[in-house]
Amino acid sequence: MINFLKLLLKHQVRSNPAKFDQNYQVKGMTMIELLVGTIIAFIVITPLMGMVIGLLNDDQRESAKANTEEEIQSALDYIGEDVSQALYIYVKQKPNPITTGAPIDEIQSLKDNGFLPNTGTPNNEIPVLVFWKRKIVENAVPVDPTKLPKDCTPTTCNDTYVLSLVSYQLLKDTNPIWCQPSGSTCPSRIVRYEISDGLKKSDGITYYTKAELGTNLESYGKESKDNIPYNSRFILSDPLKNVTDTIKINVTNPTTGEVTVTDTKKIADVTQPVLVNYIQDFKLDDSSTNDLAKLTIQGNALRRNDANANAVCTTNPNSPYCPKSSVQLRGLSGLGNQS
Predict the structure, then answer these.
(1) 258-284 pLDDT, tens per residue?
(2) φ/ψ (deg, to 5) at 32
(3) Sheet with 126-142, side-by-side order of all strands
């Protein structure tokens, strides 16, 4: 048995001459073989990588397109609900026998003493849809005249309404929050302003104070940040005058952008929620009347991922990545048409 093991070990040593033969050379791949293998791998892998990258880019674009379409539809639904309460819609054209609306150009903020907010870079915020609405305020009028709104409960107070000016505007600026990915040209977004009247007492003239309104209703005080520029002299029968308080709403010079008033309560404090970003176009149709708004919103899905994609929808407006949606919205059947 021992002899057999010695024989086996001796055979194993002889079968591995590389450890004992200095002239033994281990054979491998030649340079030509390596080069040919590399070329074949490159030919096979390159188109595969291109296909994978293309699929990833397509998926990213389609995702951006779907998000843009969804946001546009949500924005139109929101605006539709808002306009359904409209008493008077400002239109683009001059009054004529067919359309009795008033032109937005007469009240926009881009002119001196304009009535509308302009918080962006001077001369770049465009008012598109502007209207007066009746805003419901729940549980605000005490049934008992000796009580105050702050004491209101659902069983002791009635609902009322206040008059509100709503303005949807197209705004573009270089604010890094809204300019992502950052680039030389930022996307446009739709912002909404609402300036409301305060809650008046039974005499129809005197306003309740913040203390009298209480926490739940304090936003309807005359000095609330959303009501500061409201002009109590406005009447629907003369919609081009006294639209807002021009002293408190015009805080910047439309040319230089410098503050022109010292009032600490100004339009910069007015609530300015952003409705939707990455908008290519937002317009009111010329055929709109003061109780019927025809709106179109067009998005730019590619701008979500490419800082240089702003011009894509200008040169190719029919691109599937520039989704567009239009809607016709009716207010309260022309209740604001007063002569």
Answers:
(1) 444 444 455 555 667 889 999 999 999
(2) -65, -40
(3) 86-90, 126-142, 157-171, 188-196, 274-284, 292-299, 324-330
